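note to self — DONT lose this again. spent like an hour looking for the file last time. sequence + predicted structure for the chain T wanted, 176 res
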Amino acid sequence: MGRRHRRDRSRDRTTGATDFLSAFNRATLDRLRSDLKEVSGATDFIRKFSDMPRCIASSSSMERLQLCLSVLGLEAEFDGRVFSADMVARGKPHPDIFLLAAEQLGAKPSACLVIEDTAGGIRGAVAAGMTAIGLCAASHIRDGHDEVLRNAGAVNLATSWREVEQIARHFFRMAG
C-alpha cells in the first residue's frame, strides 16, 4: 500500500506541474496578445533593411514567436525565416540556432550580424562565428546589463534601434 500511494502522489505532482506549465503558457500568450508593445524603433529598423536576408533566431517557442510577429504586424517581414529553440537540440548559449539560421539563409556565419539582448545569445552568436551587437533598448534591461553583454562577447553595444542601424550599416559596408 505504501509504494502504490507514493507512486500515485508522484503521478499527481507530474500532472500538477504539467497543468501549471500549460496554464502559465496560456496566461503568457494572453498577456502578449493584449500588452505586447514594440521596442521603440524596432519596426522602422526591420523595414529599413527589408532588402537584406534576415531572420529571427530565438529561445522562445514557435507559438510565442508567431504570436508576437502577428501582434506587431511583422509576419511578412520574416515569412519562413523564424527559428525557434524548438528546432535545435541545444539552445543558447550553444551556437546551434544561429548556425541553423545561417544555413537556411545560405549565409556564411562570418557574414552574419546578430542583434541580441541576452548574454547567452551573445555567447551563442560568437560561438557560431558571428558578430554580435548587444542591445540594451528594451524596458526589461537593467543597469549594468551593457557590461554583461560586453563580457559575453558583444562587439558593439546599442541603447536604441537607431544605434543598431548605424552599427549595422557600418558592418555591412565593411563586409561589402
